[in-house]
Design goal:
- Two copies of one chain form a homodimer.
- The first copy, chain A, is an alpha+beta fold and 367 residues long.
- Chain A has two domains: 278 residues, Malate/L-lactate/L-sulpholactate dehydrogenase, NADPH binding domain (Ribosomal Protein S8, Chain: A, domain 1, 2-Layer Sandwich), CATH 3.30.1370.60; 39 residues, Hypothetical oxidoreductase yiak, domain 3 (Wheat Germ Agglutinin (Isolectin 2), domain 1, 2-Layer Sandwich), CATH 3.30.60.50.
- In chain A, 41% of the residues lie in helices and 18% in strands.
- The first copy, chain A, is built from 13 helices and 13 strands.
- In chain A, β2 and β3 form a beta hairpin.
- Chain A is globular.
- At the A-B interface, α4, β4, β9, α8 and β12 of A face α4, β4, β9, α8 and β12 of B.
Chain lengths: 367, 367
């Protein structure tokens, strides 16, 4: 069952969709360079199958720029630094811009010292943490990105929203192969996924959410009406607390209920924070040895015995890597809702003709 | 239900138990300094309620020294380093010794660069990761320690033992208050806990383990007879993979099935690895601001609403902090099995009289 699959989709050249998204962000006030950074972040999520952070988020991001909650001219700067760390003020730029700069700094530090860590405060919605984490891989480094966010999750044993599900992204470079990519939030399920169940009128598993009275519920509407996400056990809650401390407290950012629900208040700053880290593999161990040993690990685990008829074991990010490779080859799979979003945004921003011209279906290949 | 609570216990002065444990390790070949380091690690686990890594492990650790799998004269050395990282060869010293040195180096690096990361290869059983992580807190730093280990857990979707449950410890300093301490393995439950269920003849929850055929089982004996631990969902498996890469591959250590089950082969090296990291809070943010904000976070989360009659929300490490404070004040609670272990070891090592003299019951206070 793939509940995220929309009823109808068509294939559009990735470059064309990228051109559309860049045009939309430029029209909403971003520089060429920043429009390109944000487009890459949004399209990375879309390509890798994390559609909740892909094109469906565009109207909200544009709204934040237009209404002023996010700063279209935001220019993240370093507030303080040491040889291997830096603290960045995000200047209310869109999250992917601050994260891109933060990870660039972490990578530069790591080139000299072996590891670099950067905190970002005064930021905005960052998108997937996997995307800036993968940025480190192009430099031969392991990337780690943690963010805090609006509290939609109950504390472990709690009955009300108390903490963000604080997503974590970790990416491991594999030389010529696509990276290993862990991209996880600390709740059992994401809120966006529960909203999709609500739209489909389907019940949710009993361990995903509690209602406003703190009782388990399988009704997604009860979650939406003031319920809370459930943590991935006390361990998931523990990790969310650590994420809140690294990305929030250590960054000097807003924490817990100080962080508003970003897509509901486009005119207000979010002010959340991120923690970004790059580990230079070559500082620890010969790079080719590392890659060979990671390959060994992948081969062993994916070859691990499964029960008769079960799907083979997959490593974190394997599905995302496959979806991305397929769409880069065959064209981006554009669903109706995302396309409607693009056209509506184009209309609002008075760039309808340009956008319509760009969104041509790729010649159907093997569909 | 506290399944780990033994039927009968008595209180012994912590210093006396420490003296006994140090004497045992010195007699087994460790230097004064190293005996003290290992005793601290074992007693920290015992004091904090992680008894599976406490005094019950002593016979196995001593056996490793006596049979030669661990090197009583092991002298961990730095193989390579940069400003903020180092790679350590553990020289088959007991894990707590290598971890102590690794974290010391990480802390020294972090004092200068803001963050320090150290990998250790050629190591041995490390005990709880929380203990070396907390070492960072005394220097005002956030500590993170990850280890790999013998594969007792199935890959997500797998039907056989494939990867360690790769414990992670993270400790956050709180000035005068006890630290926040996350101490978690990536399986739903630890193997040691399932063994305790087996001893009590109690069934285990259905999501803890699979049997040798890869089928879920509530019979703890079926886990022991070739079954596998289950990961904390695909996210827990993903984290175990990252732990295997950081503590194993990046460290140049043994990985997956190369790592033997440490307590079964006292005459063979384990050769697993660790990843240790220290983050200097003061490099990022004013220390008093950090502590005030962490306190705010603790107050908010522990004050979070619970359903009527439920226990209040606790933060990671809260129970361990309470147990440790209570036992430091009232004396260490020595259960019969641990005491029998101590006396048997004393007998084997021909130090019975000294040990018996040291193990005097503390005057009963308020029990």
């Amino acid at each position: 069952m793939n509940i995220t699959a929309p009823p109808s989709e068509r294939r559009v050249a990735l470059d064309s969709v990228d051109a559309v998204v860049r045009l939309i962000f430029k029209t909403a006030g971003l520089s060429d360079a920043n429009a390109s950074i944000v487009s890459q972040a949004v399209l990375s999520a879309q390509l890798r199958g994390t559609r909740s952070h892909g094109l469906v988020r565009l109207p909200y991001l544009v709204d934040r720029l237009v209404q002023g909650g996010a700063n279209a001219n935001g220019y993240p700067t370093v507030l303080t630094e040491k040889a291997a760390i830096a603290v960045v003020d995000g200047d209310r730029a869109l999250g992917p811009i601050a994260a891109r700069i933060g990870m660039e700094i972490a990578i530069e530090k790591a080139k000299h010292t072996g590891i670099g860590a950067v905190t970002v405060r005064n930021s905005d919605f960052v998108g997937t943490c996997a995307h800036p984490a993968m940025q480190a891989c192009s430099a031969g480094m392991i990337g780690l990105v943690w963010t805090n966010g609006h509290p939609g999750m109950a504390a472990w044993g709690g009955a009300e929203r108390a903490i963000g599900n604080n997503p974590l992204g970790i990416a491991v470079p594999r030389g010529g192969e696509p990276p290993i990519v862990l991209d996880m939030a600390m709740s059992v399920s994401a809120g966006g996924r529960i909203r999709l169940y609500a739209e489909s009128g389907k019940p949710i598993p009993a361990d995903w959410a509690i209602n406003a009275e703190g009782q388990p519920t399988s009704n997604p509407e009860e979650f939406i009406l003031g319920g809370s996400l459930l943590a991935l056990g006390h361990k998931g809650f523990g990790l969310a607390v650590i994420g809140e401390i690294l990305a929030g407290v250590l960054a000097g950012a807003r924490i817990l209920s100080e962080v508003p629900e970003w897509f509901r208040i486009p005119e207000q700053p979010i002010g959340n924070g991120h923690f970004l880290m790059a580990l230079d593999v070559a500082a620890f161990i010969d790079k080719s040895t590392f890659e060979a040993r990671v390959s060994e690990l992948v081969t062993t685990l994916t070859g691990s015995k499964v029960v008769a008829g079960a799907a083979p074991v997959r490593l974190p990010g394997a599905r995302g890597n496959e979806l991305e490779a397929e769409q880069r080859k065959m064209g981006l799979s554009l669903d109706q809702k995302s396309e409607a979003n693009l056209l509506e945004l184009a209309d609002t921003l008075k760039i309808s003709r340009e956008v319509e011209n760009l969104l041509q279906t790729v010649e159907e290949v093997g569909r």
